[in-house]
């Protein structure tokens, strides 16, 4: 069991993790979700006693990491699959880690077998693919046969077969009664692997619930509606809102309508004398629910490519539709934060 | 203590499983012995043409160690790589997660590399001495002559301390490029310039290598005003090493890994 209480980490003026409290229970796979730069890795490093929290604390089985008796036999971690000396063989890498933790050398060959690297064990890890590197990192985490396992982005760079293997491994480890804490920025992957979810954005807790609850709370049905011209689109929006719907513009000029059935939307459009070019049922995926949840907490966001200085679009490229008014708009700034300079001066008419 | 034994075993595995160990230590031996032999041979050839004062000052032991100034650079690279490889690869996180006692980790790691540097340094120093004296022939010194054995053992100790000093600096700086970029030009050029230019000599002779090399001298040059003897100079170098290790320990202890 991992327990964080009011965990906070500041680097100078930047707050990486803010007042984070959560528990990770044994016997389940707990997914740790958040966009890039949201503080997942920082939290993991604090769990392992590598970074000192600015305030708050995090314990494993009631002890801070550095007070754990025989820590490497109780906690195993994969932090960075590339954290290997390329000139050293996989076996020597694992042997040095095993000796560091007082683990017998025969265990090295066991974990090499578990991750399927026994045939390349004596090759320099320099030539390993990213997927092989992940397997080597997972092998290192399993060395001490620990009751608590931390994996930071273990499926990055894996092929579908490798992803399935990691998924099953996590589930098996949890079924053996271990505490398994897996970070990812992919909701779709976590929906398949995890039993419980902890979602953070900008270092703050956004959700702490079971995957089942997350799905039922967040998968809403909606309709995609497209009207031909901007004028009719505005008219339709007004009519739908009047009928009690929630209408959100989509990036491609369509409308996302919730709260009304498809026939009702069609009737309203007909009454308002608006032709529809599209009316389709959709179910919000978990990925979308997750994006909605974290959208105010994304650090790196792209803006529309305005292609200033380019005269005409290359022939054959269809003109894209007008961009809805609030797309790419600045998200509300946190107190004391500089507004994003790239999202302030935009002119939707100029965008192609 | 069990932890220290585990770290020692692990570090021995690490150090012997990368090829840079063999390369850097091998180059240190070859350069030190080879250059020492060459300079000794040239000294013998030109001995008769030397001035009277130079003949009196001639130090056959120190002459055979002439390759050490260049050979020590390979040991600096060895020391820097042993430490900064952990940082440049990210292994340091796995290591410190396995051994939360950071002081034990650091000093056990340094012990392994220092032990290896000591063995290589001693062998190099003795081989260099005997090869150099063979080249000098009738002008050479013998191991039994006063102060010679001290100078030869001192040469091995000097090579060990240079390695440990580099490890301390590399622990503080973490980056291999930054560490080598500071240590290599410093020990190759800057230190010997500061130690020999009259204006800076007074301060320059307290630099670690300038003071430490005193232990390898058997004949004190005329007009040498160094206020310390062979072991005094060596002691000054030890103080530098202790300072570097203290800085390394404090920073490793405090810093986020």
TrEMBL record, chain A:
Residue ranges of domain ABC transporter in the record: 2-227
Chain residue ranges for the region called Disordered: 306-352
Domain of life: Bacteria
GO molecular function annotations of the record: ATP binding; ATP hydrolysis activity
UniProt key word Transport: yes
Biased composition (Pro residues): 312-325
Family annotation (InterPro entries): AAA+_ATPase, ABC_transporter-like_ATP-bd, P-loop_NTPase
Keyword entries, A-Z: ATP-binding, Nucleotide-binding, Transport
Pfam family, one: ABC_tran
Gene3D superfamilies with a match to the protein in the record: P-loop containing nucleotide triphosphate hydrolases
UniProt record similarity statement: Belongs to the ABC transporter superfamily.
Protein name: ABC transporter ATP-binding protein
Organism per entry: Streptomyces morookaense (Streptoverticillium morookaense)
From TrEMBL, chain B:
Keyword Transmembrane helix tagged: yes
Keywords noted in UniProt: Membrane, Transmembrane, Transmembrane helix
Pfam family, one: ABC2_membrane_4
Record keyword Plastid present: no
Transmembrane segments: 21-42, 62-84, 105-131, 151-170, 177-197, 231-252
PANTHER family: INTEGRAL MEMBRANE PROTEIN-RELATED, MEMBRANE PROTEIN
Identification of the protein by name: ABC transporter permease
Organism: Streptomyces morookaense
């Amino acid at each position: 069991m991992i327990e964080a209480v009011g965990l906070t980490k500041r680097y100078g003026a930047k707050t990486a993790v803010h007042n984070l409290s959560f528990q990770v229970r044994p016997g389940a796979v707990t997914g740790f979700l958040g966009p890039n730069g949201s503080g997942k890795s920082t939290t993991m490093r604090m769990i392992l006693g590598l970074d000192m929290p600015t305030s708050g604390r995090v314990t494993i089985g009631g002890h801070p990491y550095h007070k754990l008796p025989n820590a490497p036999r109780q906690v195993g971690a994969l932090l960075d699959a590339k954290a290997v000396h390329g000139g050293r063989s996989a076996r020597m890498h694992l042997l040095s880690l095993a000796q560091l933790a007082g683990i017998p050398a025969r265990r090295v060959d066991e974990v090499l077998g578990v991750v399927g690297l026994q045939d390349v064990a004596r090759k320099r890890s320099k030539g390993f693919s990213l997927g092989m590197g992940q397997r080597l990192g997972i092998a290192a985490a399993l060395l001490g046969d620990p009751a608590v396992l931390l994996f930071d982005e273990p499926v990055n760079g894996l092929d579908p077969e490798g992803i399935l293997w990691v998924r099953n491994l996590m589930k098996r480890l949890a079924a053996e009664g271990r505490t398994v804490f897996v970070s990812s920025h992919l909701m779709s992957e976590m929906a398949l692997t995890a039993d419980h979810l902890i979602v953070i954005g900008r270092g703050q807790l956004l959700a702490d619930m079971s995957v089942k609850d997350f799905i039922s709370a967040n998968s809403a049905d909606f309709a995609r509606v497209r009207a031909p011209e901007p004028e009719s689109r505005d008219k339709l929006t007004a009519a739908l809102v009047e009928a009690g719907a929630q209408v959100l513009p989509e990036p491609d000029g369509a409308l996302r309508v919730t709260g009304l059935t498809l026939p009702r939307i069609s009737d309203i459009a007909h009454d308002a004398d608006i032709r529809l070019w599209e009316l389709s049922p959709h179910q919000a995926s978990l990925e979308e629910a997750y994006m909605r949840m974290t959208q105010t907490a994304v650090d790196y966001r792209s803006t529309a490519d305005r292609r200033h200085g380019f005269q005409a679009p290359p022939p054959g490229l269809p003109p894209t539709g007008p961009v809805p008014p609030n797309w790419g708009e600045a998200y509300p700034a946190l107190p004391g934060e500089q507004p994003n300079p790239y999202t302030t001066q935009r002119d939707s008419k100029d965008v192609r | 203590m069990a932890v220290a034994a585990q770290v020692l075993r692990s570090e021995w595995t690490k150090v012997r499983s990368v090829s840079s160990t063999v390369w850097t230590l091998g180059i240190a031996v070859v350069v030190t012995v080879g250059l020492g032999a060459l300079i000794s041979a040239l000294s013998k050839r030109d001995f008769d043409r030397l001035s009277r004062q130079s003949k009196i000052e001639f130090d056959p032991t120190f002459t055979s160690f002439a390759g050490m100034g260049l050979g020590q650079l390979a040991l600096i690279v060895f020391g820097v790589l042993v430490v900064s490889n952990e940082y440049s690869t990210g292994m340091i996180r796995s290591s410190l997660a396995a051994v939360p006692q950071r002081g034990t980790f650091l000093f056990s790691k340094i012990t392994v590399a220092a032990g290896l540097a000591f063995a290589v340094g001693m062998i190099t120093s003795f081989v260099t001495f005997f090869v150099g004296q063979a080249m000098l022939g009738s002008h050479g010194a013998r191991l039994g002559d006063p102060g010679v054995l001290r100078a030869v053992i001192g040469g091995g100790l000097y090579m060990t301390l240079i390695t440990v000093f580099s490890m301390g600096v590399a622990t503080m700086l973490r980056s291999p490029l930054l560490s080598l970029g500071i240590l290599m030009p410093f020990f190759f050029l800057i230190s010997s310039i500061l130690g020999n230019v009259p204006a800076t000599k007074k301060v320059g002779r307290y630099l670690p290598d300038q003071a430490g090399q005193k232990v390898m001298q058997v004949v004190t040059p005329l007009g040498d005003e160094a206020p310390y003897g062979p072991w005094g100079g060596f002691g000054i170098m030890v103080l530098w090493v202790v300072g570097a290790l203290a800085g390394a320990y404090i920073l490793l202890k405090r810093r986020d890994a």
